[in-house]
């Protein structure tokens, strides 16, 4: 049986159910990149995934629920934070990971499509907020560690520092269209580190 109780993203199915979920989420990502949120259709996703429509409708029920679970999966698959031993090294690693993700042939368009969907669908927006909260929380640890080593002023808000690293990178992806590369990543990391040392993010 493929039935899974609970809201999408709240369970970790195993066996055949896990394989079905993987296939459906991959198909949903493909469809989202190709057609956008408005063109996302559960029946089409089921066809792409070679899964019965009733399974897809029973498990996810709506396209918003499907995108929410897709974001949960993306958070689960994201690389863990680095630990280079220095604030500069850790923030640079974070920025470069963001750039690699946003310039990836699949992940870049997928993130852009999800962000666009979140502007008009509250459930997708909520799922996107949860996704970034998870990622920011994980990388905030490197800022806490830097503060513990005396690299940053006491009271530095770690979440604000991590947001400052990625914000200009997402701006380039979603607004300006300017190039994204490691040079841009390193500059964003250095700017966030300098601001943090200057006490800009002290609560």
Automatic annotation (TrEMBL):
Whether Iron counts among this entry's keywords is no
> Which key words are in the record?
DNA-binding, Transcription, Transcription regulation
Name the Pfam families on file: TetR_C_11, TetR_N
Which Gene3D superfamilies does this entry report, sorted A to Z?
A: Homeodomain-like, Tetracycline Repressor, domain 2
Q: Where is the HTH tetR-type domain?
A: 18-78
DNA-binding annotation, residue ranges on this chain: 41-60
Q: Does the keyword DNA-binding apply?
A: yes
Its name, as the record gives it, is TetR/AcrR family transcriptional regulator
From the broadest rank down, the organism's phylogenetic lineage runs:
Bacteria, Bacillati, Actinomycetota, Actinomycetes, Kitasatosporales
